[in-house]
Amino acid sequence: MLDHLKETDHGTPRRESAQEVTLEIDGEMVTVTAGTSLMRAAVDAGIKIPKLCATDSLEPFGSCRLCLVEIEGRRGFPASCTTPAENGMKVHTQTPKLQQLRKGVMELYISDHPLDCLTCAASGDCELQEMASVTGLREVRYGQEGANHCQSLKDESNPYFSYDASKCIVCNRCVRACEETQGTFALTISGRGFAARVSAGQDQPFMESECVSCGACVNVCPTASLQEKTVIELGQSEHSAITTCAYCGVGCGFKAEMKGNTVVRMVPWKNGKANAGHACVKGRFAWGYARHKDRVTKPMIRKSIRHAWQEVSWDEAIAYAASEFRRIQAKDGKDAIGGITSSRCTNEEVYLVQKLVRAAFGNNNVDTCARVCHSPTGYGMGETFGTSAGTQTFKSVEQSDVVLVMGANPTAAHPVFASRLKKRLRAGAKLIVVDPREIELVSAPHIRAEHHLALKPGTNVAVLTALAHVVVTEGLVDESFVAARCDTKSFDEWRAFVARPENSPETFESVTGVPASEIRGAARLFALGPNSAIYYGLGVSEHAQGSTAVIGICNLAMACGMIGREGVGVNPLRGQNNVQGSCDMGSFPHDLPGYRHISNPEVREEFNAAWGVKLNPEPGLRIPNMFAAALDGTFKGLYCVGEDIVQSDPNTQHVVSALEKMECLVVQDIFLNETAKYAHVLLPGSSFLEKDGTFTNAERRISRVRKVMPPLSGVGDWEATMKLSNALGYPMAYTHPEQIMQEIAALTPSFRGVTYEKIDRLGSVQWPCNETTAEAGTSLMHIDKFVRGKGKFFNTQYVASEEKITRKYPLILTTGRILSQYNVGAQTRRTHNDQWHSEDKLEIHPHDAQERGIGQDDWVGISSRAGQTVLRAVVTERIQPGVVYTTFHFPESGANVITTDNSDWATNCPEYKVTAVQVTPVAQPSEWQKSYYRFNAEQLALAQAVLPLEPVLSDLER
After folding, report:
1. Kind plus residue range of the DSSP H or E element containing 189
2. What torsion do the CA atoms of 203, 205, 211, 215 make, to the nearest 10 degrees?
3. Which residues fall within 8 angstroms of residue 763, CB to CB, at 6 or more apart?
4. pTM for this prediction
5. What is the pairing mode between strands 430-434 and 402-406?
6. At what angle do helices 737-747 and 601-611 cross, to 10 degrees?
7. Crossing angle of the two packed helices 488-498 and 546-559, in degrees rounded to 10
8. Residue range 569-620, pLDDT digits in tens
9. Do the beta carbons of residue 795 and residue 493 sit within 8 Å?
10. Cβ distance 168 to 197 under 8 Å?
């Protein structure tokens, strides 16, 4: 076996118990918690028992009959995986009789198995092969002349793994992993007796079944029956490194298995605190973009966006960018330029960009893509609790009795957390879903939401206030919690406010579209818990009242006493891998690292001393303000790192107009993305596989990202920022990202105890992590008191969105994500994930479709006050009448061409979720799409000499 890659497999899961039992195994005294299997107890004692159907990520099954043991005083040979340890037991794991029985079992397995070990892709990493050796099998008496499965056909339909039924030993591991770990129930055993074989769906190819390609089945397969195609192609790996996924905010730990600097496969890290050995299709398989032919590997410059790109050296590109920025500031003032950081970058990279803006540019014009997703979280949680971060770990949901999921679709956007949640729901927890669509969690295998509050988009605050009304008027407030932990004055004012008749579920019913009885039932369920947790997403924050809705969530949790212990809490589900970290690192124009306001003279002096500068006390421009200033002619230069604002920000035509006015747009990214097509300088970025540093996930968990291959451009992202700073006259001299983290820790109180050494030793830490916390930081927030002291309530007056339906625009468009694609799709579109989702489509209810003469897969035009685009229609009852829905993963779709620039009152977070539209049948692309295809072709032609790219065409245009 490949020992350098193997982690100890205890055979069965750990059992939690206050009781212990002591027994003797092969003469060794062993003490374990009650309920522990004999197999696991033996492993704890350093004794390995042969096994095939058992693995410690799954409940014991007891089918392979290899793990038999003898127990003194008992008859027979029980399976050690299903037999619990008891006090006083005397167990023998190796006797002549056990040897004989195991060898006989292995002989039967091998008699119906291809004997091609030397050419098998799993050779050296095959448990069947290992068990044949362990049991001493040297010959097989049963020939293969009779009926066998050795000629069974392979299923190669999945782009990432192969299913070879001839090598299946029907151990059931894959079926159990799909059920227990993933919760999809896509696999089964079809046939009986000799005919039994693993089947996807109803004997379907994997790609036609309900399989979501999470890889859990591949991960537990003990043979080569389920095998990654990269392993089949490249062979077994030679070394590995632990790193962190660069997709969503779950922050899964992975073991990158390598040959040289080539990735063979990404295996979910068993000790990853966020994922516990599980993964999704993106993190597990969609990493091939890191070596895609479209990668930008050389710096490029040009005078204008109508000129061809010129490939130059790093020194030339940096010198040109610096000279342009200096020219603009000399002409138009120091505030005429700024920077944008990305949640796809590491903490260290983000920190350097905001430091460059403040120290080298001399202003605070820095913002982050978190502005367009979770800035209301920062404001709302900061005001009520005193800190803008989730209160729990993902594991905490295992102790929840009631879970409220609001404005989030975890199975699509945070699938590994969703699997953990579904497992808890199958165990008996109750679920409340607040969402305009019928997301999968409303009704999935073996789970069903107790309440689905299918509200009208834009009415979150009304629903939350109505829930609070029930809690207050029906005596469901946790009075002792509120008295001890919350600000009395604000609570009394809030209680009187929500108790008003105009805030009742009955009054709001016509506004929200949710029956009052459903609101009342959900409120009672949540308040009575006893442990109720809230998980929310962009369907809460991306509204004109996003900050108000976050405050409403926090109000509800405090009023019901659902803060400060396991199984409760308020937990924002962050969309990108480092949304939390990019905010923590001071990416907002008003905040320095650690959410310390730039206007605070004591804080500013601390940074002045460390950085050797005098910081400007005035907050700088937010992203929307940068666009407005660009159109006014007062903002002319931008350093944009890892963020595709043309595709991701609302009102695309407004964004493009602003960028076209720029005199120097510097983009640092791994691809020629939509924003880079308007750039004057393009600096090659690094993929997560080429980075050293840290990410911070939605749990506040800081995990290491480790470079497993050198940057294709020869320069890391942090080094590029450092080069630009040095060229601008502000010296930076870091030699490794670890030094940057040391500076972050020195200047950020909540990070004071964060070190690479500690993360390497413990696996991860959670901020706050300093001298006042445990060594690994803080897993659970607000236990005895809130960060701000007393929790503060705020009245949440519902204000209808300015975006209203009219006869011209009678439908409401809302947007979201899909499992196989990620954000703007720049990474996932360059992988096999396109085989699941190759275009954005518009979901429309059958009633609305029939009224307009729209059928399944028809082309439809979607028009709003901001613009028009054309998509293919999906007629479905998942969406309610009067509402349409689409994703935004493909640039040619133009989803953000039709979203407006309405935004949250407190943070300018765009109102992506509420756009009034009309939908009509069409036969050709929209004018914007025609313009996009022309511009895209022009830009690719201008890059042709250095980047051989192909134009993007839609099916409709073809």
Report:
1. strand 187-190
2. 120
3. 253, 271, 272, 273, 703
4. 0.94
5. parallel
6. 150
7. 110
8. 999 998 888 999 999 999 999 999 999 999 999 999 999 999 999 999 999 9
9. yes
10. yes
